[in-house]
Amino acid sequence: MNTTAPMIEIAAVNKWYGAGFQVLKNCSLSVRRGEVVVVCGPSGSGKSTLIKCVNGLEPVNDGTIKVDGAAVTDPSTKLPSLRAKVGMVFQHFELFPHMNVLENLCIGQEKVLKRGASEARAKAQALLERVGMTAHSHKYPGQLSGGQQQRIAIARALAMDPIAMLFDEPTSALDPEMITEVLDVMVSLAQEGMTMMVVTHEMGFARKVADRVVFMDRGEIVEDTQKQRFFEDPQSDRAKLFLSKILSH
Amino acid sequence: MKGWHWDGFFEYLTNAYLLEGALITLGLTIFSMIFGLMLGFVIAVMRMSKYKFLSGPAYFYTWIFRGTPLLVQLIIIYTGLPQMGIKLSVLESTLIGLTLNEAAYLSEIVRAGIAAVPRGQVNAARAIGMTEFQVMRYVVAPQAFRIIIPPLGNSVNGVLKTTSIASIISMEELLRRTQVLIQEKFLVLELFVVAALYYLVMTTVWELVQRRIERRFGRAFEAQASEPASLGEQR
Ligand SMILES: Nc1ncnc2c1ncn2[C@@H]1O[C@H](COP(=O)(O)OP(=O)(O)OP(=O)(O)O)[C@@H](O)[C@H]1O
Ligand SMILES: [Mg+2]
């Protein structure tokens, strides 16, 4: 493994939805190994689109994206095997509703990584313990609270032993009292050295564990700075305005 | 033979030949539902493909089979195809005709079911590294299946009755056997009422079964309506 090359490298990416609407404009961003990068910006600025491009859930029209040296944007790259190495957590959890918690954690291990059932189960149990959900292993997602579902979703991603984790607003669909339980799991992951790209407006999380903050607006990466600097001295007016809005309440 | 004959009615009600006819009707229904569903699934997936060479033929198929009467399809298969050197027995013609016809209708149901699985589920499945086939097999199809259980149940009810059309090509199912027996004693009304009762018993029993199935699969699972899933990956 090359330890100096970035884990995630987005270079000059352009993307259009349909013919007329450019959702990503010449975006470049790199995330080094072990780095935690927080992406924020107004609604509709293209954050979800950008993060979905990283594991090829959305195609790009132009530019290149590499994950651990493999080009996501190269049509000959086998996307499934690349995605198996990159964990992703969604705003709306997206647990598989027809499987119980344990099955949710084992399906990828068994079908994608071809692990044996007992090995997968052991891994699942260990992760359930880690996210504090041991008591719920036989429940269905519909029987869990949002915070519990999101912790399971994180565990599901971790079960694949990912080399990096992508989070798309993991707490924005949660009731306030459940946000902490999810953020706690994410903070501990960050502290263990996981490479993370996190779309969130939780600035407390950003202050605590982020290395860098990326600010997007209207499809452009407007700022990409060390977090200290982003909070204390944002360069662009757009970032200043955005910060004043989200920090005021 | 004027008036209603109770003795004749009860005799036919327990007639082994008719009962067997009802079982054949049941068999035709089960067969055409199973194979119709399999073919219907393939057609639905083709229909949802972004590739024209897949979606085009699938569209053409449903257009033909939903746009013409089953009766005509059966006659073409049984009496028309021999002209092209394809000779099929009555049973083969019936099974093929019912299956092809049912597949066209079921594919529309399957398609609606697949479209009702939220797009986010597809993304989640892809994100853990599943291939497109695995996404369908483990995530989309099971959820689509639960969504389409009610309309599928209604289809079974429909097919139970539709099989009677095969009597026209002398398939010996319940209706055909009823007509055969009429030649014996000319108890027309009694016999048709018995046949109707048999159909009614089968559809009623099915209704009870269907309710149990719906309750079973309804537990601990509710599908959230959201963006439809599209098949095949864009790059
Ligand atoms: N599949 C799509 N087709 C067309 N337009 C889309 C599609 N997905 C997103 N968009 C548009 O692209 C823009 C960026 O969307 P995106 O979801 O990436 O924004 P976002 O920054 O994540 O916003 P939010 O904070 O609301 O999640 C929006 O204007 C959105 O309406
Ligand atoms: Mg978003």
Automatic annotation (TrEMBL), chain A:
GO cellular component: plasma membrane
Domain of life where this protein originates: Bacteria
InterPro entries in the record: AAA+_ATPase (IPR003593), ABC_ATPase_HisP-typ (IPR030679), ABC_transporter-like_ATP-bd (IPR003439), ABC_transporter-like_CS (IPR017871), MetN_ABC_transporter-like (IPR050086), P-loop_NTPase (IPR027417)
Keywords assigned by UniProt, alphabetized: Amino-acid transport, ATP-binding, Cell membrane, Membrane, Nucleotide-binding, Transport
Primary subcellular site in the record, as a coarse category: membrane
Record carries keyword Acetylation: no
GO molecular function: ABC-type amino acid transporter activity; ATP binding; ATP hydrolysis activity
Chain ranges of the ABC transporter domain: 8-243
Cellular compartment(s): Cell membrane
Classification via Pfam families: ABC_tran
Alphabetized PANTHER family for the sequence: AMINO ACID IMPORT ATP-BINDING PROTEIN, GLUTAMATE_ASPARTATE IMPORT ATP-BINDING PROTEIN GLTL
Name of the protein this chain belongs to: Arginine ABC transporter ATP-binding protein
Organism per entry: Azorhizobium oxalatiphilum
From TrEMBL, chain B:
Keywords: Amino-acid transport, Cell membrane, Membrane, Transmembrane, Transmembrane helix, Transport
Compartments it resides in: Cell inner membrane; Cell membrane
InterPro entries, alphabetized: AA_ABC_transptr_permease_3TM, ArtM/GltK/GlnP/TcyL/YhdX-like, MetI-like, MetI-like_sf
Alphabetized GO MF terms: transmembrane transporter activity
Domain of life of the organism encoding this protein: Bacteria
Listed transmembrane segments: 22-46, 58-81, 186-209
Residue intervals of the ABC transmembrane type-1 domain: 22-210
GO cellular component terms, semicolon-separated: ATP-binding cassette (ABC) transporter complex
Keyword GTP-binding found: no
A Pfam family the protein falls into: BPD_transp_1
Biological processes, Gene Ontology terms: amino acid transport
Keyword match Membrane: yes
Family of this protein: Belongs to the binding-protein-dependent transport system permease family. HisMQ subfamily.
Role description: Part of the ABC transporter complex GltIJKL involved in glutamate and aspartate uptake. Probably responsible for the translocation of the substrate across the membrane.
UniProt-recorded name of the protein: Glutamate/aspartate import permease protein GltK
Organism: Azorhizobium oxalatiphilum
